Amino acid sequence: MTLVLIGLNHKTAPVELREKLAALAPEPAAAYQYLRELQAVQEALLYATCNRVEILFASPDPETAIPQVRQFLIAQGGEADVQAMQQALYVYREAEAVSHLFQVACGLDSMVMGEPQVLGQIKAAYRQGTEQQATGPLLNRLLHKTFSVAKKVRSETGIGGLAVSVSYAAVELARKIFGSLTDKTGLLIGAGEMAELAVEHLKRHGVARLIVANRTVERGLELAGRFGGEAVSLAELPEQLLRADIVISSTGAPELILTKDQVKGVMRRRKQRPLFLIDIAVPRDLDPAINDLDNVYLYNIDDLQGVIQANLHHRQAEAVKAQRIIDVETQKFLQWRETLAVTPTIVALVDKARQICQSELKKTLPQLGPLTPEQQKSLEVLAESIALKLLHDPFLYLKRNHHPKRRSQDIDLTRRLFNLDPDRSEDLR
Predict the structure, then answer these.
(1) Could you tell me if 257 and 249 are in contact, meaning their C-beta atoms sit under 8 angstroms apart?
(2) Set 50, 66, 143, 170: catalytic member
(3) 106 given a catalytic annotation
(4) Are 208 and 187 in contact (CB under 8 A)?
(5) pTM value?
(6) Residue 428: its pLDDT value, please?
(7) CA 394 to CA 22: how far, in whole Å?
(8) Which of 146, 152, 170, 426 has the highest CB neighbour number within 10 Å of its CB?
């Protein structure tokens, strides 16, 4: 079984392309149904974050599976996107796939290095995958290993403490434009995790007033209440734009929340007072054409890259430590994978030893005269104990960390020495 990871991210594709694939994540049932129907795909996991969409799968026939999964992802865009999709998609196998997954979960491959939200998104996607019965023993083990590696990186490096989120970068951009936020009103569209982080950062920098607009008013009330803000419904957005200086939008809505015409009408009533909007949602919440309006400044998630780059050098030392942990844990996982090839041979040796013991005891016991059940049991235990002790050293040899090619040769030689594949022996005669 080969591990393969296929996807695109902020390094290979602009937001316009990523949001085409992001629609797969909220309702993944159809995607998983397609993947389950592929004979070359045995286990699969689909996950999406703000900056990536990836499919991780295990395949007994990767040369067949990879083109099929690539084509599935390419098909999510329009005809005009085919070439761009083909160029944006990357394919990682085995060690590269494992290492990349660890990097994603630890925040090393994020637009904002060390971003902790990604791990939560992968955990949620894993729950979806298990609910869809798409994962299996290999991916289950890999995902649990991923979570433990992320925890190890957080506890043994400072990358978590130094990390900033996309929400933080959005607030940093607002501070650069306005200088002080102490007399400004912040409007949050959406009340999810990204919005919560944005509220925390806005409050930390002294924003005067907070408004939370959300489809579910109850959730908006909860978030606004914790930070001394005000909750409104999405239907009230045009009126609330009259009050806002900074708008940060991060909903999971499949359609635009604000259009150019809506904002144009508001700007007339605001008497052209500047309005700063940041769209950190994928798919985007705000109509890109809004940026054409006078005194309106719209930034999307890709525009935050400059803010993020300015902070990167502070985290590079911690990233090196984190990568070292990831490299070690990747090798540990691959070594565990290699032991899976050894296990069937060890089981076969134990089974054969027990069969020989039972066969020989069946011949010998009648020649020993009357025996009590306890005596017969003692002889059976003795025979099996001797056989397993003779096999102890071969077991240790097979379990050693040999080079993969050497390991395969050792397993093959062991199976031939002990005649564990009698059909093959017949073919060789």
Answers:
(1) yes
(2) 50
(3) no
(4) no
(5) 0.62
(6) 35
(7) 51
(8) 170
